[in-house]
Description:
alpha/beta, 8-stranded mixed β-sheet, 2 domains, single chain, Rossmann fold
Amino acid sequence: MRIGVPKEIKDHEYRVGIVPSGVKALVDAGHKVYIEKGAGIGSGITDSDYRIAGAKIVQSAKELYASSEMVVKVKEPLPAEYLFLKESQILLTFLHLASDINLTQAMVDKKIIAIAYETIQLNNGTLPLLTPMSEIAGKMSIQIGASYLQKDKGGRGILLGGVPGVKPGTVVIIGGGVAGINAAKIAVGLGAEVIVFDINLERLTYLDDIFKGRIITLMSNSENIEKFVIYADILVGAVLIPGARAPVLVKKHLVTQMKPGSVVVDVSVDQGGCIETCRPTTHSNPVFDVKGVIHYCVTNIPAAVSRTSTFALTNVTFPYVLKIANRGVNQAAAIDEALARGINVLKGKITHAAVAESFRLKYEPLKNLL
């Protein structure tokens, strides 16, 4: 199979879809790999590194897409890239279709095979390709939030961990999944007061056990959220429903009651966000203000630590890349249920129920198309 890895063009997106060891494994298996010039530079990987591994360096995205049967990316294609996509081409990347009708329609119109990292799901419900990025985004949410609490950045002038004789900052985390638990780890480590909400009592029990009473765990319901969100110095949105738009759990009237200079970081913004006042931002222009509350809603947070993120991501994505290259999509999906759940669009049909439901579009079960 001919596999292409383009240079990401999303704002300050420095990650890359395959590392040299992956290139070598693909070439050793008899496949051809094309890398767009400079694709790995942001992660500290040179074109020479890729050449040594056996890849061919191409000069443009147009050439790369034209040469490739499968395109392996990190982030969703932007409108400038839609023109390069061709029917029956395999696209393997983070897509987050449920938050973008235009992107969804482009995938359908182009009749590509769109496989979303974030919906590849094991039988036990875990999302193996999303997990490492959620870990990074969760940890960074506190690092970022703590920075914006500084007075010189418009914040309240709060040191998150406090000092003896001075109360620490309060962190409220909506969602106790992978991103939420990693946010809690960093917040607890810094000495903050931490409150975590989740709808799953078993999950809250688990969090209470592992943190040994160092956090407060609360059931996620409107009454509890209304009571505690307004006291947050940092509010982290970390809610996920695989493939679907994130539910809005924190309404605008609550955000406007938060203290001026407090900080909102919505990790779930790439799926639409769980905080009503949030809208997608970029690394170039990461924050905006709502009634004195700082909002950080960057949709590709892990790109800021691109080398760590690239290697963490490709550790988990590459086995699927190799499986598809060796067997083709149909056979690979037939033997791997997790991969099959990752197929969002096939033959011009939406094959993920949550994506179709988000836009009230027709859903076509994958089994009807393979």
